[in-house]
Design brief:
The protein has one domain: Rossmann fold, CATH 3.40.50. The protein is built from 8 helices and 11 strands. Helix 7 links the parallel strand 9 and strand 10. Helix 1 crosses helix 2. It is globular and about 55 Å long.
């Protein structure tokens, strides 16, 4: 895998990468794995702009989202169904039948998860899976301790994740659902390519563990080291704990409008 430290807007960088991979892929339909969260809002805005300007289409794209809260209706403003339709799906030309998001209100949650894995296999797997990193290194809702071969399942959220997400629920942790449906780390690692974004100093410890720590289930993000075509894209704030040598290299390249790329 590789770590890319950039001074450019992460969302614009990622949108350009997605467009390039889609445009140059001979595989149709192209299958995208998609996340939610503040870090990727600009990415979705940029993708919407590319479609509006005729530089990209979602007509030949199938998407699978990473996760969804248990118990929230699709109309709830903090559900990931609502987020995705607000930020992307209502602005692009993806066919409704090609949009896949886990149903957190399913009568049988285990069956919903198993069917999701089957649906991914039926389209030939994920070509490019996007994602973000939690403060504790979680990927999707795979909290510390999650097995690297885990599959889509029901997950009990840790208090740290509940507290972090409470900012979306009137800063009230008691309003945050305590469970979610989430792809597993194994599901993510099955993708042909992975691109993970991390912005801000709150992600610096997770990035430090990724770069200088051991591969460990206590830091789920380190599972990416087991993938040959994984890229973690971060800003300088997320790289702030990596040491003077790396930051000096980054500052030198930034003057030339270049990213710093490290192989891990």
């Amino acid at each position: 895998m590789q770590l890319v430290i950039t001074s450019h807007n992460l969302g614009l960088w990622a949108a350009a990468h997605i467009c390039n991979r889609w445009k140059n892929s001979s595989k149709r339909p192209f299958v995208l794995g998609l996340p939610t969260g503040g870090t990727v809002e600009e990415m979705y805005a940029a993708l919407s702009g590319l479609v509006k300007n005729g530089k990209m289409t979602f007509k030949d794209i199938i998407s699978f989202n990473m996760d969804e809260y248990v118990g929230l209706s699709p109309e709830h403003p903090q559900s990931y169904h609502y987020y995705m339709h607000h930020h992307l799906f209502s602005h692009v030309d993806e066919k409704p039948e090609n949009i896949h998001i886990l149903n957190g209100q399913a009568a049988d949650l285990d069956a919903e998860c198993a069917n999701y894995e089957t649906a991914i296999k039926q389209v030939g797997g994920i070509d490019l899976f996007m994602g973000g990193i939690g403060r504790n290194g979680h990927l999707a809702f795979n909290e510390p301790g999650s097995a690297f071969d885990s599959r889509t399942r029901v997950i009990e959220l840790t208090q740290s994740t509940i507290d972090a997400n409470s900012r979306f629920f009137n800063n009230d942790p008691t309003q945050v659902p305590t469970r979610a449906l989430s792809i597993g780390i194994g599901t993510l690692l099955d993708a042909r390519e992975i691109l993970i974004l991390a912005a801000g100093a709150s992600k610096a410890e997770a990035i430090l563990q990724l770069v200088k720590g051991e591969v460990s289930t206590q830091w789920p993000v380190t599972a990416l080291k087991n993938h040959a075509h994984a890229t973690v894209l971060i800003d300088k704030e997320a790289a702030s704990r990596l040491g003077t040598d790396i930051l000096t290299q980054f500052d030198t390249l930034r003057k030339e409008d270049k990213d710093l790329v490290l192989s891990l």
